[in-house]
Amino acid sequence: MDLVAAVDGGGTKTAAALADRAGRVTILPPGRGCNPQDDPDWATVLGGVLGALGRPVAAVLGLPGWGEVAAHDRAVAALVAAHLPGAEIVNDVELAWRGAFPEGEGVLILAGTGSMAWARGGVRVGGWGDLMGDEGSAFWIGQRALAGMAHAIDGRSGAFGFAQALGARLGCGVAGFAPLAWMMGQAHPRVAVAAVAREVDALAVAGDAVAQGILAAAGAELAGLGRVAAARAGSGAADWAAAGSVFASPFVMAAVAEGMGRAAVPARFSALGGGLWAAARRAGWDVAGAWEARVAAAT
């Protein structure tokens, strides 16, 4: 049976799927993040995912960090070639943009572990990593929340209630240097800090004003990425779509919509679905109508 494949890699998770000519989709078990910029075991993770795909007739892979560090690109390309010769590799945010706007119009704002905006012509804004950027991302939110906890414990802010609530959710409390011990005990610190964003959103939903303020600031940063991407692509007040775990927060979504001057439009496909669509086109398949609808619904 002829199959096409797609991989949507990220800093936290690596997802993969296969589709046949009828649009039937098989979602494979996800792997851990596969970003070569922050995970020394990225090749093991990515190799395992690629090996599970078999030999599809075409594949499109969206991988974190692609196009940013030449040495990493060479290593990734060699690994992919060993498993899937002829596969197309793009940046993971470009894959999400292709899924949202297959016809090439609009701005994709992605906020997961990192953050970036993408628009037509290969315009990308952001994505500089947690040391230089990734504004509005899950890591950015988590880092600010943890810093806020430290400030409150020191007495440098009046947000001790927020610190207590966050410490309780993380299971470390706020006694002494307990949050620091929690941080030092994480096997994958970047992923652990990014995961704190979920706890911040939960506190915001419960009415914590400090948490709400952090998420509103994240939304403002993300909208800034989107506006610059639209301007550089010559799109003006472009439609935009959201991707990534951070947009599960209604506070972030509302703040980005305010900053962009309009609500997000629904993505036509997920990143994984967009990858399957692009791979099927590479294979010369008819992807209109029923095929597209089945893949969009399954991914």
Fold and architecture overview:
The chain is 47% helix and 16% strand. It has 299 residues and is of the alpha/beta class. Helix 1 runs parallel beside helix 2. The longest helix has 24 residues. The mean pLDDT is 91.
- Which fold name is given in CATH as the topology of the largest domain? Nucleotidyltransferase, domain 5
The total tally of domains equals: 2
Which of globular, elongated, flat, extended, rod-shaped describes the shape?
A: globular
Q: Which percent range fits the helix content?
A: 40-55%
Extended strand count: 10
Strand-pairing-aware structural class: alpha/beta
Span between termini? 20 Å
Largest beta-sheet details: 6 strands, mixed
Residue-averaged pLDDT: 91
The stretches of 5 or more residues where confidence is low (pLDDT under 50) are none
CATH evolutionary superfamily of the largest domain: ATPase, nucleotide binding domain
The CATH class label of the largest domain is Alpha Beta
SSE order, one letter for each helix or strand: EEEEHEHEHEEEHHHHHEHHH
- CATH arch. level architecture of the largest domain: 2-Layer Sandwich
